[in-house]
Amino acid sequence: MTTSIDIEEAPTAERVTPDHEVIIVGAGFGGIGAGIALQRRGIHDFVIVDKWDRVGGTWHANTYPGVAVDIPSFIYSFSYEQRGDWSRVFAPGEELRDYADDMVDKYSLREKLRLNTTITSAVFDEHNSLWRLTTDGNEEVTARFAVMAVGGLERPKMPDIAGLDDFAGTLMHTALWDHDVALAGKRVAVIGTGATSLQLVPAIVDEVEHLTVFQRTPIWVFPKFDMEITGLSRWVMERKHIRSAVRLIGTVATEVGMSGMLTGPSWLMNLSRQAAEVPTRAWREARSRIR
Questions:
Q1: At what angle do helices 93-106 and 29-40 cross, to 10 degrees?
Q2: Residue 30, burial from CB neighbour count under 10 angstroms (0-12, 13-18, 19+)
Q3: What span, in angstroms and rounded, lies between the C-alpha atoms of 159 and 168?
């Protein structure tokens, strides 16, 4: 069964001309990358809108103790703008924010920015074949195309725990960290053991009087291979071709380590999936023999 939709477009002479060819919502890595890609395609009539007062997305919004990239820094960057001056293997959040700022300046995106502006709605005008976006100032901005480059890592969601609203102590989410709250000598509880928790806990454990970590599901934990990039490591990372080779190896290792699979052609994904299933099959066979 097929469904057809008839859209009656306005005659060319009556069609509304949009304010921009493209509107990009979000000035994090995704929005910045989209802007660079548009320029490379010869499209320069676009605007990048973001609710924050600075670019960087999650790396500007999140400032909790220990905030850092959770994959090696030389992987977490644009392939065409690799850097060899990261301070650590897992760079702190402020370095990622500064990297985003550098990309905006290098590719002349600063004039394309509209910061401190929140998009509250986006409606497609079928009659005129354009998008109508409304800002928090009740201003309408139109564009032929809209690119949604928004993330969710700076939008806190408090856990649904009975009695949480009655908690008498200080309650805060890492995405809205209050730096006026002193943790020294306090009893602190951290709920969750995701990537944020794995960064936060080591950063505050020596400061607080007592720290309790609550987790719903046990996770696999192994030492974090983090260190300052100096000396020989710095020399290696400053060599473009060597750095690219290290990045390729690191990318493959990260894909396998985080998902157990490689992304790519179907044959490669099938091979990696089958390889990842080998330990599981062996474990099941061992269990069946025991029974």
A1: 20
A2: middle
A3: 16
